Amino acid sequence: MPLALGTTAGCSLRGTVRVPGDKSISHRSLLFGAIADGTTTIEGLLPAEDPLSTAACLRAMGVDVSPIEAGQTVTVQGVGLDGFQEPESVLDCGNSGTTMRLMLGLLAGRAGRHFVLTGDDSLRRRPMKRVGGPLAEMGATIAGRSGGNLAPLAIQGQTLHGATIRTPVASAQVKSAILLAALTAQSPTTVIEPVQSRDHSERMLRAFGAELSVGGPSNTEVTVTPGQRLRGQAVVVPGDISSAAFWLVAGAITPGADLTVENVGLNPSRTGILDVLKQMGARIEVLNQRDVAGEPVGDLRVTHGPLKAFEIGADLIPRLVDEIPVLAVAACCAEGVSRVSGAEELRVKETDRLAVMARQLGAMGARIEEFADGMAIQGGVQLHGAEVDSETDHRVAMSLAVAAQIATGATQLHRPEAAAVSYPEFWSDLERLQA
Ligand code: S3P
Q: What residue's CA is closest to ligand 1, atom 11?
């Protein structure tokens, strides 16, 4: 059944919202907790489909992870660096690229053990050689369809050796997989990225007691020495800025809106969205800035106002890679033509997000020109309600809901349930904030 959106004429958005826990930090807290010695407690873990996939894979290898429910502290009983049991069946990563890619790094060095990873229709189409290639340089054996690029993937655990690896794309998933494999290798490993990607793994590894050195131009080189034991920790997961992004854009473009998003993670490697919204002249205040368990956190207040077009180039992409779909919606409401370039990575996300946003927002009257590595979006265009589809992509579903907010007439959204991958309460929060 499609979801009816934007049917109440002139309704605005007002109030306070707490977005669920950061997806990247949630995955990592489960994974690092699993390979640590002792118990890890996780407060604020994202209770959504993607982290559930990570937890299910860990349980299948003998890790005791307590039930993941909203508002509950999750406990992981670490099995130590070498404690995983060989799973009896295939490990299902669902829709989650982070689960599959980080698992590849985590499992490649388990000598003598065999693992098979698979996922849903979307994940089985996503490129995995970007992880398998670097891991092969460390001695990993990973086989899969299309020359090892596509899941299902079979890992025959090997004794790994350290390496110096230059990654062709700035991807925190690739970097983190290499760092996890490096922990189990026989000599040090250095990973060098073209541009720094999000650094949650580095921060959390340090918090768990591992030593790593970060250097090079703009923190693009990370070195890990193997054989270090991690110690279980008390992790507090901040709200996900990638989920907050929907409210930030919705607040900036909806006449009369005044929204406060509480407890948002403000790690500088993730705050590109704030830089772009400021570039657009959006009215955003950062309040109550603080540090929570090694990650900067604050509350964000946004009110409606006039917006100017933005320019986003390759250097900025890693800091807002997941926010481009909703920024495309903001661009429709700005004065001038907004441009995104250097964003070819969007084509290999849960869907081809450049094509899907051009197609779905286009159905609502947006004027988007799509390029191989980005798009140009005409501003000052009045969107109209239409029949649209998430195409199973969580961020597309929520971006289209934001667009429906300022469109004339009603929108019917097919497959809205995709939002549950990262933000299960999105639809109830939307209803509550529509004053
Ligand atoms: C993530 C990294 C990003 C992001 C994804 C989560 C992570 O992917 O798009 O949603 O947790 O490391 P890439 O590393 O492929 O850019």
A: 24
Measured from the Cβ of residue 1, the count of other Cβ atoms closer than 10 Å reads 7
Q: How many CB atoms lie within 10 A of CB 57?
A: 30
Rounded Cα distance between 76 and 36, Å, is 9
Domains 3-21+238-434 and 23-236 share a fold: yes
Tally Cβ neighbours within 10 Å of residue 74: 24
E strand or H helix that includes residue 376: strand 374-378
What's the burial of 58, exposed, middle or buried (CB within 10 Å: 0-12/13-18/19+)? Answer: buried
Mean pLDDT, each 10-residue run in order, the chain (435 residues): 79 95 98 98 98 98 98 98 97 98 98 98 98 98 98 98 96 98 98 97 96 94 95 97 98 97 98 98 98 92 98 97 98 98 98 98 98 98 98 98 97 98 98 91
Q: Give the distance from CA 203 to its chain's centroid.
A: 16
Q: What per-residue confidence (pLDDT) applies to 11?
A: 80
Q: 23-236 has which CATH code?
A: 3.65.10.10
For residue 200, the Cα-to-chain-centroid distance in whole angstroms is 11
The minimum-distance atom of ligand 1 relative to the CA of 348 is 15
CATH number of 3-21+238-434: 3.65.10.10
Catalytic site positions? 322
The answer to whether 229 touches 209, Cβ cutoff 8 Å, is yes
d(CA 105, CA 260): 38
How many angstroms separate the alpha carbon of residue 321 from the centre of ligand 1?
8
The strand ranges marked E within 69-124 are 74-77, 91-92, 114-118
The pLDDT assigned to 9 comes to: 57
Structural domain boundaries of the chain? Answer: 3-21+238-434, 23-236
| CA–CA distance, 7 with 169 (Å, rounded to integer) | 42
Q: Which residues line ligand 1 (CB under 6 A)?
A: 24, 27, 98, 171-173, 176, 197-198, 321-322, 345
What amino acid is encoded at 376 in this protein? A
Residue 168 exposed, middle or buried by CB count within 10 Å (0-12, 13-18, 19+)? exposed
For ligand 1, atom 10: residue with the closest CA: 322
Tell me if 328 sits within 8 A of 309, measured CB to CB: no
- Ligand 1: atom nearest CA of 27 is 11
pTM: 0.98
Nearest ligand 1 atom, CA 322: 9
